[in-house]
Amino acid sequence: MYWLIGEGTQNHAQYPLANAQYPLPTSNSQKKMQFAQRLQPLQSNVFADMDIAKAAALAAGRDLIDLSLGSSDLPTENHVIDAIAQSLHDPSTHGYLLFHGTQAFRQAAATWYEQKFGISVNPETEVLPLIGSQEGTAHLPLAILNPGDYALLLDPGYPSHVGGVYLASGQIYTMPLLAENHFLPVFADIPDEIVAKSKMMVLSYPHNPTTAIATLAFFEEAVRFCQKHNIVLVHDFPYVDLIFEGKGVPSILQADREKSISIEFFTLSKSYNMGGFRIGYAIGNAELIRALRQVKAAVDFNQYKGILNGAIAALTGSQTGVDAGVNIFRQRRDTFIAALHHIGWEVPTPPATMYVWAKLPAPWTHNSVDFCTKLVKETGVAVSPGSGFGKSGEGYVRFALVHNPSILEIAVERIAEFLH
Fold it and tell me: Could you list the residue range(s) of the whole structural domain that residue 345 is in?
């Protein structure tokens, strides 16, 4: 039995089953629920807003080409799937998984780092499994910031970096990323009074959304700055393998080999196409790892052990799938850039990641949200507005290269019709 509760009314006609057994709600039950003020800055984000626009386009009958979300469309390698599948039939994997049960995964992560970057890592004290790197960037501020403390964040930057600081009741100072500075922050521009109140800095290179990369010299500058001012240095590192030119990119720990103030987050979502499995890890300063582990212990246990077994297979097995994925995204990049240039939209060729960061043409140079919502409404092509990544992202849009080249060319054809 049920009744329908109307807003702001006591009309008995709306409660046909109301009686002594099922009393009408009192006035107290209609008071507006109050929530914590820390939720106010989290009312919307770029992905949620575009999700609404995409749903409206689909409802209107548009054929959607979604280039707004950076979720790899490539399949997980078979040897990874096999490791997970075999675990399903092992009853010992079916229970809660506490920290000490993750030792094999932590050892695999430490070995992977040592082989890739030449950094010695203690798997017992310097590695922590995570539910993707986003868990790390969202939860670490709870371990570092007191209310009113500042975090230094990139602008534009990934939305979860902002969300974690707000949940910790911290304050944010944004470091603008400008094309003339190669989308790198200028530490000397941060006011002294802000530096004095800052407890953490978050970097992320190769960078989402600008696709910029950072040199080891830049990381060494960042380490010196943070050491001088006693600031925790956080590096979000999901695109370590998605590099199209050169020999690779540095880890922040190569600039802070003693792990004095640094922690780095890696996810298997991009390199190994395991986004849906939600597996990553933190690596770095032992005190920071221990503090993040304390927060994590209050929030969750670990993933199903079979997922960690799959991650071990990914980190220790053949890396040909990683190389093949990079080649696929390189081909997509080249096709998409050539198509944009063909229609007269000149954009730089990204050196890394799965994105294209494009400066909007006139008359859209100051309203990226309007451009994106109208584009998906009229063409079915969904992209992300630059302003959703921060104030300095206004005037840009981000394309995610998560479709085959033929689909990307169709998307550009639709964009051309929209622009002209």
Answer: 41-75+320-419
